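Q: Start with the shorter request: fold the first protein.
A: Done. Sequence, then structure:
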Amino acid sequence: MTETFFGQFDLASLSLWLFYFFFAALIFYIQRENMREGYPLEDDDGNVSANQGLFPVPDDKTFRLPHGRGDVTVPSGQTPERKDIALRKTAAGNGFPFVPTGDPMVDGVGPASWAPRRDMPELDGKGHPKIVPMAATEHFHVAAGRDPRGLPVMGGDGEVVGAITDMWIDEPEQMVRYLEIDLDADHGGGKRLVPLPMARIKSNHVKIRSIFGKHFAGVPQHASPNQVTMLEEDKISGYYAGGTLYASEERLEPQLG
């Protein structure tokens, strides 16, 4: 009688070991793909870290961006990090806090920091700028809530700096992203944007608590009256957010809730 091969072979054991090898390879692949941004690791001084971890950095992969925006290659083609940041260590060892060496809101450090994103507007699926002023589109109007247009703008110190002239809409998401402020001459003049979450719309004014009247002239400006770039968005948001800590020396101290 001739015995078959599988009669003397443990198929269940083979299946189990194949699953083990497949799962280990899957973890290895996913971990390497996760290292396409932020690697190789750096220490606090910006030098390549001595401990890069168990997994090697993946090979370069090129992504073709939609709407004719070119290619991006990662990890070697990453946008370089900001250099010469105005911060200094508080201790010699790694992991200790850094403190600003200048005006942190102007230098864009700490809570006011921003990333060097591409200086072009974010697009929707059809290749159009996502965020546009309401005045430039006929598809939106205020159907509920309080319309802030025309209301005076008040800083965190109670100083009136200008008035709201428009709202900037995220068309695909159908929501307001920014309020547009027309600053008076004493506070720098011109148009500025404020992220809606940083503003409080009251019955007779709009309050922006994070910065004071003297800071509005320094709010980063957007170059185009009809669109805002990703880099401009990051700088604008960072400026207002940084004011929550840096607008006053009193805010640097511990706060009681």
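Q: Next, the second protein, separately.
A: Sequence, then structure:
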Amino acid sequence: MIRPYGLACTLLALSLALLASPASAQIVNVHPLIAANGGKDGFAIAVEGSADVRTGNTRLIALSGSAIAGYRAGRHQAFLMTRAEFSEENGEPIVNKDLEHLRYRLAIKGPLEGEVFVQHDRDDFRRLALRALIGAGPRLRVAPFEGFEAAVSVALLLEHEQLAAGPEPDAGQRVTDARLSAYLVLSSSVTPHLKLGNTFYLQPRLGRAGDVRVLGETSLLAAATKHLSLKVSFSSAYDAAPPAGVLPLDATLKSTLQVSF
């Protein structure tokens, strides 16, 4: 039976996902559903991957993977995440993107923490040749019930973007902006082997209220063994000011295998 708080978390997670639907603008969720180190000191690694290869009437190659390396020592925690996706249909690339994110977290007092992070990413099919950012801000952890955790953060980030070359009027454009980056992370243990998580991001550009990015991601992690899990995730994102020729809405439904140790 799902406990009342588990049901509440489920409903809230679904509602947050619908608020941002459908969508994967330039925000990428860098918060793993279950921390790679499980809250314990020391090193830990979690790896995810998926592949879809077809031949015949449909020729398709779709590959994606991510890895998280985490380290915790008392009040100090750091993790490095890398992600990459590539898809090709009938010899034509349809997805080509990657991301690298490094974050350091310091426990200050009680539930209050501080974060500093840097990130690089690119996405050929959103015409993003380069995005580099650095940011910092406070983070507050909340755990009102057993098996339920939440965290909220507001950070200030400075980002630099360069668009790819091409025939579009903004081709090659370079922009450096400051944004606020607020996120809410929810996690609930529905059963000992089933965990539900949701992350919601809001990133308005400072000085231009109409330029805002939103991301909602809901994930369900089912543990098959101590080291092997199946994760199903749905992400939706919205970019109010995308590059020329790029749609503001994207949505992704994905199933992956996760190996952690």
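Q: Describe the second briefly.
A: Residues 1-25 have pLDDT under 50 and may be disordered. The chain is about 5% helix and 65% strand.
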